[in-house]
Amino acid sequence: MIHGLFKYRLFGQEFWITTTHVSILVVMLVLFVFALAANRAMRHAQEVPGFFQNIVEMIVEMLDGMVESSMGSYAKKYRNYIGSIFIFIFVSNISGLFGLRPPTADYGVTLPLGIITFCIIQYNNVKYNKFGAFTDLFKPIPILFPINLIGEIAVPFSLSLRLFGNVLSGTVMMSLIYSLLSKFAVGWPGFLHIYFDLFSGAIQTYVFCMLTMVFTSQKMPQES
After folding, report:
1. pLDDT tens digits for 136-150?
2. In angstroms, rounded to a whole number, what is the distance separating the alpha carbons of residues 147 and 169?
3. 154 φ, ψ (degrees, to nearest 5)
4. Per-residue pLDDT band at 121 (split at 50, 70, 90)
5. Per-residue pLDDT tens for 49-66?
6. pLDDT tops 60 at residue 35
7. What pTM did the predictor assign?
8. What is the pLDDT of residues 172-217, one digit of tens each?
9. Can you tell me the mean pLDDT for 153-181?
10. What is the DSSP string of 142-199?
11. How many beta carbons lie within 10 A of that of residue 88, not counting itself?
12. What angle do CA 151, 167, 189 make, to 5 degrees?
């Protein structure tokens, strides 16, 4: 469950700081520190890279390769966005390994990510297809307009619910194991953490980013 830690009043309204806010703050601080260290390392890059420089270069090359393989010539425009959400979602998903409640187990975190992606998809749809972005909703026959419209609107919800549901299920499973088998949960739950937090977290990160790239690419002119 999401627990309220303390509350405050602002403009006559009551707001709560929850475990999700704390987890997001920790994740952001970790990413901020890593970004500063990576920036410093690359500014003083060595001809023979050290351990940390190798890690940074490997991450950048991996993300660039993933985006380019899916988006082709459009990759340069979106590699920063895809790379950012990939790293944020992945670190959030695996934060359970370090005793945090994964921020992505809160629908209030995954829904905004889905909405941002939806806005990017529709921006490209209007930019490249002009009025076709609206007339395509009536194809192949006008009677299918409601279904086509629902299909477009459902994108942010399907993306966010898929990520939220899979991360939350892993969090719930681990909570049940620790609460019901507390006396016997010594050592061996670590293997379950590897699956639910690390393996499943990596898969869900990849799926979210891959679907984002696929949906966005579908609205752009296809390369010849």
Report:
1. 888 888 898 999 899
2. 30
3. -75, -15
4. very high
5. 888 889 999 999 999 999
6. yes
7. 0.87
8. 877 777 777 766 666 666 667 677 778 888 999 999 999 999 999 9
9. 85
10. GGGHHHHHHHHHHHHHHHHHHHHHHHHHHHHHHHHHHHHSTTT-SSTHHHHHIIIIII
11. 19
12. 155
Q: Hunting for tokens 């709560």 — which residue is that?
A: 16
Please name the amino acid found at residue 76. Answer: K
8 A C-beta contact, residue 110 and residue 166: no
pLDDT of residue 187: 60
Q: How many CB atoms lie within 10 A of CB 170?
A: 23
The residue whose two tokens read 């921020």 is 103
- First vs last Cα of the chain: how many Å apart? 50
Query: CA-CA distance, 65 to 190, in Å (whole number)?
Result: 32
